[in-house]
Amino acid sequence: MRLVAYKQKNTLGPYRMGVVHHENVLDLQEAYRLYLLKRDQVDLANAIEHVLPSDLTSFFKLGEQSIQHAQVALNFAEEHDVSAISFLFHDVTLAPPVPNGAKVICIGTNYKNHVAEMKANIPEYPVLFSKFSNALIGANDDIQKSPYTEKLDYEGEFTVVIGKEASHVKKENALDYIAGYTIGNDISARDLQKRTPQWLQGKSLDKSTPIGPWIVTADELTDPSNVQIETYVNGEKRQSSNTKHLIFNIPTLIEFISSLITLQPGDVILTGTPDGVGFAMDPPQFLKADDTIRIEVAGVGVLENKVVDMETPDQ
Ligand code: MG
């Protein structure tokens, strides 16, 4: 299943949970409500907001139950006319599939070749940093280039979405806590990132970090330890690697993080970027307005966004 947070273009109101169905976006809550009505479960259908919430935060709070109901809704749609609640991708916009308040945990220097190109050291422990929700944008949004950076860079990253509360999880069980996978572009302002020991100011700029386009559920991507990831800038291949080269693999990351920080459904982990970032090219190549960054992750999909110059009040 490919889960999206969508709304119809040019409409007000919140983003709703959807699922990709025959290359359209199917409204999950409405599909599940139709399923309940078909089974004469009117009371449940009337309480649909509690059974299968439409907003991202409540959807993820219900964890596995939401995913199970989503699968039922998708199965129902296979055998019934759902055209009234199904929309062309062209007619919707997608939000990052990350609920409000979710933790956005990023892993730095987690591929050996990237450590080398950044002239960093192989870390003894996973390097953790975070982004705030102000930084996140969806698959259809443009990356805003702040006027306060001249060294904007891309980082294609395989991204994990947590599916149930995880505290002190052991490696062997870690995959059980994953709802699915998506793609992150850990856009980094190298000049801001490197001017102080803490990276945050260069990593969480307003509307800089695309995540999406959807979450591929874990039942469809069963082996996250062997996933190809490639990044293109204006069609030129810049990054090409595989999650098998992660220094700290996904079970290790979940064990490590959950020993310190309780993870909640909807929290995301950007697992680190491979080598090939613009900063390490000779000469370095940084992003400018109209550049397009395309990240392809096998078994997940494609995340492609354009860079635009941010308009600020003092310009
Ligand atoms: Mg990164």
Written description of the protein model:
This protein has 315 residues and is α+β, with helices and mostly antiparallel strands. Helix content is 22%, strand content 31%. It is built from 9 helices and 19 strands. Strands 1, 2, 3, 4, 5, 6, 7, 8, 11, 12, 14 and 17 form a 12-stranded mixed beta sheet that branches. Helix 1 (28-38) packs across helix 5. It is globular and about 65 Å long. Bound molecules: magnesium ion (MG). Residues 106, 108, 155, 157, 186, 270, 272-273 line the site of magnesium ion.
Structural topology:
Layout: E1 2-8, E2 16-21, E3 24-27, H1 28-38, H2 42-46, H3 48-51, H4 56-61, H5 64-79, E4 86-88, E5 92-95, E6 104-108, H6 112-117, E7 127-131, E8 136-137, E9 143-145, E10 152-153, E11 156-162, E12 178-185, E13 188-189, H7 190-194, H8 200-203, E14 209-217, E15 228-233, E16 236-242, H9 250-260, E17 268-270, E18 292-297, E19 301-309
Parallel strand pairs: 6-17, 8-14, 9-19
Antiparallel strand pairs: 1-2, 1-5, 1-14, 2-3, 3-4, 6-7, 10-13, 11-12, 11-17, 12-14, 15-16, 15-18, 18-19
Bound molecules: magnesium ion.
| Largest sheet properties | 12 strands, mixed
| Amino- and carboxy-terminal Cα gap | 44 Å
Spell out which ligands are present: magnesium ion
What is the helix/strand order? EEEHHHHHEEEHEEEEEEEHHEEEHEEE
Q: How confident overall, as mean pLDDT?
A: 96
Total DSSP helices:
9
Helix content: 10-25%
- What portion of the residues fall into strands of 2 or more residues? 25-35%
> How many extended strands?
19
Based on secondary structure, the structural category is alpha+beta
Oligomer state equals single chain
Radius of gyration: 20 Å
